[in-house]
Write a structure and sequence with these properties.
single chain; about 260 residues; Rossmann fold; 2 domains; about 45% helix; globular
C-alpha cells in the first residue's frame, strides 16, 4: 500500500500516537507534516530523522491546537494536505461538579474544535487535488463512557459525530472520513505511569497492566502506535475507498463488552 506522492498532516505528532502514526505513514511513502504547540530543536530533529530514515519529505510546523486560527494556518502552511490525521488531544480527570471550567474548555478546544478547524481548511485542498482522507483519532471513549472524564468523552463522542457528517458531505467525492477508536495504547506517557501505579497498588508490573490499566480491555494487551499507524495507512489505501463515515476500534475488544 504505497502512499507515494501524498502528503499527510498529523496534529499532535511530536510524541506518542501521533509520532507513531507519522512514522508508519512515512514508511508507506507519504510525505509528512508533524505538529505540536512547541517549537524546539528536537521537534524539527524528529522530522529530519523521519526524512533521513524513510526518504520522504518531512517537516515540523508549530501550531497551538487550542486556537482555531492556528489550526487553519497549519493546513495553509502545509501546502498540500491529502491526508489529514486529527490526533491532538489532552486529558483531565475529575467529577463533573468539580471539573475546572478552564480544563473543560481546553479539552473541548484541543480534542474537538481543532478537528473542525483543520478539516474545514483541508477539504478545499482535497477537492482541488481530487482525492482526500480525513482520519480522526477518537477513542474507545468516543463510543462508550467512564466516570470522571466528562470533557474527554464529550469531545471524543463529538469527533465521532463530526466524522459521520464529513463523510456524508463528501460521500459522492473521492474523499473519505473515518474515526479510529483506540483503547489503551502503550506510549511513553503510559509507560511512565506504570512505576507509580505499581507502588500505589503494591503490584508488580504485569499485575498493574492486566488488572488496573487494562481492566476494560479484554485482550489484556496494549494497542501499539505502529498498529494505529498501520490502520491509518489502510484507511488511506484504495482498499478503503468505500469505507467512510465509520469507526474502527483498535481496543482489544473493549467496546465488544
Amino acid at each position: 500500500m504505497s502512499l507515494q506522492g501524498k502528503t499527510a498532516v498529523i496534529t499532535g505528532s511530536n510524541s506518542g500516537i501521533g509520532l507513531g502514526v507519522a512514522w508508519e505513514m512515512a514508511r508507506a511513502g507519504a510525505d509528512v507534516v508533524l505538529n505540536s504547540f512547541t517549537d524546539r530543536e528536537e521537534d524539527h530533529a524528529l522530522a529530519a530523522e523521519i526524512a533521513n530514515e524513510t526518504g520522504v519529505q518531512a517537516r515540523y510546523i508549530k501550531a497551538d491546537m487550542s486556537k482555531g486560527e492556528e489550526c487553519r494556518e497549519l493546513i495553509e502552511q502545509a501546502g498540500a494536505c491529502d491526508i489529514l490525521i486529527n490526533n491532538a488531544g489532552i486529558q483531565f480527570v475529575a467529577p463533573i461538579d468539580e471539573f475546572p471550567v478552564e480544563k473543560w474548555d481546553a479539552i473541548i478546544a484541543i480534542n474537538l474544535n481543532s478537528a473542525f478547524h483543520t478539516t474545514a481548511a483541508a477539504l478545499p485542498k482535497m477537492r482541488a487535488a481530487g482525492w482526500g482522507r480525513v482520519i480522526n483519532i477518537a477513542s474507545a471513549h468516543g463510543l462508550t463512557a467512564s466516570p470522571f472524564k466528562s470533557a474527554y468523552i464529550a469531545a471524543k463522542h463529538g469527533v465521532v459525530g463530526m466524522t459521520k457528517t464529513v463523510a456524508l458531505e463528501t460521500a459522492q467525492e473521492p474523499i473519505t472520513a473515518n474515526a479510529i477508536c483506540p483503547g489503551y495504547v502503550l506510549t511513553p506517557l503510559v509507560e511512565a505511569q506504570i512505576p507509580n501505579t505499581m507502588k500505589e497498588y503494591n503490584m508488580d508490573r504485569e499485575q498493574v497492566i492486566r488488572e488496573v490499566m487494562l481492566q476494560r480491555q479484554p485482550s489484556k494487551e496494549f494497542a501499539t502506535v505502529e498498529q494505529l499507524g498501520g490502520t491509518c495507512v489502510f484507511l488511506s489505501s484504495p482498499a478503503a475507498d468505500q469505507i467512510t463515515g465509520t469507526t474502527i476500534s483498535v481496543d482489544g475488544g473493549w467496546t465488544a463488552l
